[in-house]
Amino acid sequence: MSDTLQHEDEAVAERQALAETIAREGGRVALGYFRDRSRLTVDRKTSGQDVVSVADKEVETLLRKRIAARFPEDGLLGEEYGLQDGTSGFRWVMDPIDGTSPFVFGIPAWCVSIAVMRGETIVAGVIYAPTTDELYSARRGGGATLNGRPIRVAETATLQTGVLGLGANHRVPSRVVSGAIERLLDEGGMFIRNGSGALMLAYVAAGRLAAYWEPHMNAWDCYAGFVLVEEAGGWIVDPSGWSALMDGGAVFAGSPGTRADLLRIAGAEAT
Ligand code: IPD
Ligand code: CA
Ligand code: CA
């Protein structure tokens, strides 16, 4: 390996290690609020279903502070505090709490999600689920792990034999989702929605869910999950097809045997 390549690899590995450390640290802060929800103030964002809590803000502030202390020239994009450009070529894309709705209602399906990009490529992703103490981590070309053990997607799963993780929100017309659910059920498939798209993407990487689909997500919801799924042997529809990073787009990810069926059922064969 050339010196330059080795240096680039180390630069990514160092950021992956920091992402793991701060995902755990942020997760512990959020878990404190989750266990004592009387401390949790919740504000409405775009609708009664789209809310933010004091924990989301506190965790993102912590993540930003830790990253800036170690890599002050890296760019930052987080759900709560937006985009801050950097100069190093690296950008962190993070969701301090994915699954805020389950989080505020006391349902344990939520996580901290952190992706690292170099240029336009997602080079590392970490998802930490504090309630189960599960840390998912991947580096491009370096494989995917769950609490340090290698994970693989469910190699033989289909939509008929496995379960589809489904995401829904009010950013797209309801019939987009209802039509796909109808086709899925008619074809013998089944779905689950736990309220955390990032965590469901990690479940695809770990072989628990056969695939994941949501008609619209933002980069902070899914970038860490994308590299986890790819490094675990699965497929995604590349977000480079989105009109812009900040616009978000449709999310498809799965084990090999689900691709054709999922794209058809979701009405996206041309993708
Ligand atoms: C949401 C969750 C949800 C998905 C939404 C996301 P948030 O993120 O991932 O499962 O369906 O599209 O916005 O608001 O909990 O960070
Ligand atoms: Ca999210
Ligand atoms: Ca969030």
UniProtKB/TrEMBL annotation:
Top-level EC class: hydrolase
EC nos: 3.1.3.25
Pfam families, A to Z: Inositol_P
Cofactor(s) in the UniProt record: Mg(2+)
Keyword Oxidoreductase listed: no
Cross-referenced SUPFAM superfamilies: Carbohydrate phosphatase
Reaction catalysis annotation: a myo-inositol phosphate + H2O = myo-inositol + phosphate
Coiled coil: none
An example Gene Ontology biological process: signal transduction
CDD domains found in the cross-reference section: IMPase
Keywords recorded for this protein, A-Z: Hydrolase, Magnesium, Metal-binding
Signal peptide stretch: none
Keyword DNA damage included in the entry's annotation: no
Gene Ontology molecular function terms on file: inositol monophosphate 1-phosphatase activity; metal ion binding
Family the UniProt entry places it in: Belongs to the inositol monophosphatase superfamily.
PANTHER family: INOSITOL MONOPHOSPHATASE, INOSITOL-1-MONOPHOSPHATASE-RELATED
Name listed for the protein in its UniProt record: Inositol-1-monophosphatase
Lineage of the organism: Bacteria, Pseudomonadati, Pseudomonadota, Alphaproteobacteria, Hyphomicrobiales
